[in-house]
Amino acid sequence: MQVNKQKDDDGANPAAVVAPSARSGDRPRGVLASVLGGSLAAVLGTALHAHIWYVNGVGIPAGALVSVVLATSIAVFVAVAARSIFFAALTGVVAYILVGLAASLSAGALIAAGVEVEGALPPVAIAGYVWVVGLAVGTVAAVALSWWALRPSARPEAEAL
After folding, report:
1. What pLDDT score was predicted for residue 109?
2. C-alpha separations of 32 from 22, 82, 90 in Å
3. Beta carbons within 10 angstroms of residue 147's beta carbon
4. Cα–Cα distance for residue pair 139/26, rounded to 1 Å
5. What are the b/e assignments for 8-33, b being 16+ CB within 10 Å?
6. Residue 149's CB: how many other CB atoms inside 10 A?
7. How do the pLDDT tens digits run along the chain, 161 residues long?
8. Measured between alpha carbons, how far is 141 from 153 in angstroms, rounded to an integer?
9. What CA–CA distances, in Å, run from 158 to 32, 122, 151?
10. One-character DSSP codes across 44-67
11. In angstroms, rounded to a whole number, what is the distance separating the alpha carbons of residues 61 and 69?
12. pTM
């Protein structure tokens, strides 16, 4: 019986660099993690985004800013854990769809976007805009950060060569 031995790569003839990606068996777990992460980001972000800090009478949508950072962090975590940039985008899309559904299905009194107070939007309405637009920007940022974290030169074994 003859055994075929595979040549080990000694680095003399380097092959193409391949970015780490999820194995096909890990894809259902990555999708599940994206759905759970997107749901968590949507629920927590929606609950937090209306918190306003008042500094010298000026309302700062601190809750919305924290919500965007939280959602971006969750998307990056899911992508890095699943070793695929795709899951950062999927997590953000799931969160965005859930936030959109919550906004469209909620009672009109919960959404203050069309209300004006003394000719200006109230801070809560601004926080809503920051949350919705920031979630889209955070998703793009999560994809970029995930790409950066998963690039081949970031891997420890790439530095050892």
Report:
1. 45
2. 13, 10, 10
3. 14
4. 22
5. eeeeeeeeeeeebebeeebeeebbeb
6. 15
7. 555 555 555 555 555 544 455 556 678 899 999 999 999 999 999 889 888 888 888 888 899 999 999 999 999 999 999 999 999 999 999 999 999 888 887 655 455 555 555 556 677 788 888 999 999 999 999 999 999 999 887 556 655 55
8. 20
9. 29, 51, 10
10. HHHHHTT--EEETTEEE-HHHHHH
11. 13
12. 0.73
* DSSP letter assigned to residue 12: S
Report CA 123 to chain centroid distance, whole Å.
Answer: 25
**Residue 34 tokens, joined:** 């994206």
Secondary structure of residue 5 in the 3-state scheme: coil
Token couple for 114 = 């069309």
Alpha-carbon distance of 88 to 68, in angstroms, equals 14
Dihedrals phi, psi of 117, to nearest 5 degrees: -120, 115
Residue 146 gets which letter from DSSP? H
Separation of alpha carbons 152 and 148, rounded Å: 9
